[in-house]
Structures are given as structure tokens and as C-alpha cells.
Write a structure and sequence with these properties.
The chain is 18% helix and 30% strand. It has helices spanning 14-28, 125-130, 236-248, 252-264, and strands at residues 37-43, 47-48, 60-61, 66-69, 74-79, 84-89, 92-97, 100-105, 112-113, 143-145, 148-150, 157-160, 168-173, 178-183, 188-190, 202-208, 218-224. The protein has a five-stranded antiparallel sheet with strand order 3-1-5-6-9. The protein has a five-stranded mixed sheet with strand order 11-17-16-13-14. The model is unreliable at 1-13, 15-33 and 129-140 (pLDDT under 50).
């Protein structure tokens, strides 16, 4: 009988060797699969380095791009895969490397982490068109909240900038059913416990003069969400992402106000 060669159980098979080599190759090439970056805020004449081509809001930048940020200008770049925002203030020149933005001159500001809810936001062509929206009336920011996505507790207290001629508050469903009316003073009002708001519904509210025929001096809308479903914004890029998510949910007025907050940040 011809003796059979003994197989070393600890030695990798041919397929295992190939798989292991593929893993090593993937690890070694990870940096080549860099994510595109999205311009989520831009102020001033930020251009692509070496040209006069301006960088616009919601532009997509690929690895290898270089940006020139002059004195007084700034730009914020969203890495949606990493869930981070890189702010850059001029003067600076930056290169988008596979590992992320790198300052060739000047310095990068600290990276901000994006709220988990905002990482899911998808930018549409409509968002690109509306990204620079401004509200023109001087009285458009009388209301302070609730606004946009809010928790049940946040939806109980209404706040506005106090004005002596504002004396009537009204809350209604998005379909126009009046939920509550009240004469108000000062700059805030809390709903009575008898007034119930339903989870998952969208409401509209505003303040106006004492005459019921007067149109609202300002109005906005909000939708009740679970606490972990309410995105928190900490800068202009985050407010723009909030605006995109509100627009997708049909809260156009609240989205306009979020855009305004982004511009004012």
C-alpha cells in the first residue's frame, strides 16, 4: 500500500490562502475607496484651486479636488459615510485626500460629528435649487418654537418674540382643524393639559393681533416625533440637512425657517 501524505490541519488550503490574500489586498487598498464630500455651507468666494470656478452649495467634490478659501470666506464639507463635517476658514488651501481634507496652507477647524438622524438625509435636485432660499420679510422670525420635528413635551410650550400688538395664538392641524385658540401676553404660552396632540401628526401655529380678521404675523409648522427621531443642529451645515429632511416630510414652511437659521449661523 502506498502511504498517503499526511495533511497538516494547521496549514491553509488553496482557497483559504486566496481568501486571506484578498483580505490583505482589501485592507491595503482601503484608502483608495474614499467617499465624495458634499458642500453643505459656503460663504465668500471659495473656488477650486488654480481656477476662478466658484464652489456652490451642495456641490459634490471628489478626492483629488483642491479648494482655495480666501481671507474672510469659509466652507463646510460633509462626509456622509463617516458622519462628520469639516469646517474650513480662510485663508487656506485644502486638498481632498483619500483620508480626508488636508490643509496645504492655513489650518482646518475641528471636525464636527453629525447627528445620527441627519446622516440619513438624501439631497435632491429640489434641495439644490432651494438651498439659497431667503425669507425676505422683516417679521418672518417672530416665532421661536415649536418648529420642525419636535418631541411631545417640546410641542406644549409656544415661544415668540414679544410685541405689544400680538395677542392671539392659534394651533391647528395641517388639514385646518383648529386645536386651540388663546389670548396671550408676553413671549410664551403653555397648552392646557386638556389639549391633546397626536403623535405622528403635523400641526400649524401662529400669532397675530387681537382682531380675528388679521392674518398671522408669523406662522410655522411642527411634527411630533420620538425623542430619538428629532435631529439636533449645531451649525449651518446641520441646519441645511434639517431643512432637507423637513422638506422631504412635507414641512415646507419649517424647512424655509431652517434654511434661514443656516444662513444666520
Amino acid at each position: 500500500m502506498i502511504p498517503q501524505p499526511q495533511r497538516d490541519e494547521g496549514a491553509p488550503t488553496g482557497l483559504a490562502t486566496l481568501a486571506f490574500a484578498a483580505v490583505l489586498l482589501l485592507i491595503g487598498c482601503t484608502d483608495s475607496f474614499a467617499a465624495d464630500l458634499l458642500v453643505t455651507d459656503v460663504r465668500g468666494a471659495v473656488t477650486r484651486a488654480g481656477s476662478t470656478q466658484p464652489v456652490a452649495l451642495f456641490d459634490t467634490l471628489k478626492p483629488g479636488a483642491r479648494l482655495s478659501v480666501p481671507e474672510g470666506a469659509r466652507v463646510e464639507l460633509l462626509d456622509s459615510a463617516a458622519g462628520s463635517i469639516q469646517p474650513v476658514r480662510g485663508p487656506a488651501t485644502i486638498a481632498l485626500m483619500p483620508q480626508g481634507p488636508k490643509a496645504e496652507s492655513g489650518m482646518l477647524d475641528p471636525v464636527r460629528t453629525v447627528d445620527a438622524q441627519l446622516r440619513k438625509v438624501k439631497i435632491t435636485n429640489q434641495d439644490v435649487a432651494l438651498g439659497s432660499l431667503r425669507m425676505r420679510s422683516a417679521d418672518t422670525r417672530l416665532l421661536e418654537g415649536p418648529d420642525g420635528f419636535v418631541t411631545a413635551s417640546e410641542a406644549r410650550t409656544y415661544r415668540w418674540k414679544g410685541r405689544p400688538n400680538l395677542a392671539r395664538l392659534e394651533v391647528a392641524t395641517q388639514e385646518g382643524e383648529v386645536v386651540h385658540k388663546a389670548r396671550v401676553e408676553g413671549g410664551s404660552y403653555t397648552l392646557p393639559e386638556s389639549v391633546k396632540l397626536e403623535a405622528g401628526r403635523t400641526y400649524v401655529w401662529g400669532v397675530s393681533g387681537v382682531n380675528p380678521a388679521d392674518p398671522p404675523a408669523d406662522w410655522t409648522e411642527f411634527a411630533l416625533s420620538e425623542a430619538n427621531g428629532v435631529p439636533r443642529a449645531s451649525g449651518p451645515s446641520e441646519w441645511r440637512l434639517v431643512a432637507v429632511s423637513l422638506r422631504a416630510a412635507g414641512l415646507k414652511r419649517a424647512a424655509e425657517r431652517a434654511e434661514q437659521r443656516a444662513s444666520a449661523s
